[in-house]
Amino acid sequence: MRVLVTSVKDIASQTIRDVLVGDYGFSNSGESFEGNPIMARDKSAVLITSNRDLIECGHLEERFNAEAFIFCSRHRAQSGRPALLVHSTGNLGNEALFGGRPQELSVSVASLVAAALRRLHREQNERNLSQFEVSMEVTHHGPTSMKTPLLFVELGSDESHWRNKEAAKAVAAAAIDCVSEPIARDATIAFGGTHYATKFNSIVIEGRHRIGHMAPKHALDAITGDVVRQMVYRAKEKTTAALIDWKGTNAEQRERVLPILESMGIEIVRARS
Q1: How confident is the model at residue 197 (pLDDT cuts 50, 70, 90)?
Q2: Mean per-residue pLDDT over the chain, rounded
């Protein structure tokens, strides 16, 4: 069973929830979670609503024995630029300003990240959402401590977009694809570039790699060996390769990261978009 997670504190999350209930056959199971009805769709998925902010939902395993948690969330950016996004979670550095613990990563599930990105890209074209950027983001924010794999699929980046029904339908479709997508045997991690991992998007959309955790250039000056190892081992699939954005890293950063990866037998691949 896979669990779709929404929050009463999140406008975009509730817009996406309304689409999931209205368009995808979820019905009231007769059970509740935190006073909110649990919606079920055969035996493959349930849709839950928490009273907590989604980045603070590290408690879900206390109630649900899930194969994966799929968080349907808002994305907030100062630019206000409309966006459809997907990413793994975790705090790469020594701060945890938005949930989770410092220098701790969640369990990534690259197969579902790839499925969501591909569906968001397709929905962008089919729903005439060209004003919305479609992208993966690097690993950031909580939850970080759960043993169950998770990912965030997000609608951004301000209130007008959070209420956009067509954009919410795109995120809902991506979340539903994550319910049925098989989990592969192997996956890749990635290093370098910016927060919005544009260098790696086409690589995933075209099926050349499935990427779980990603660390941007600005995190690599201080990234620890333990966090690099978590990128490899805190993953549902077996991590076999690391994509390096060569132009999106400097020599010192590569010298910091590559020996750790090589010592674990991880193949180093130069990213070619």
Answers
A1: confident
A2: 97
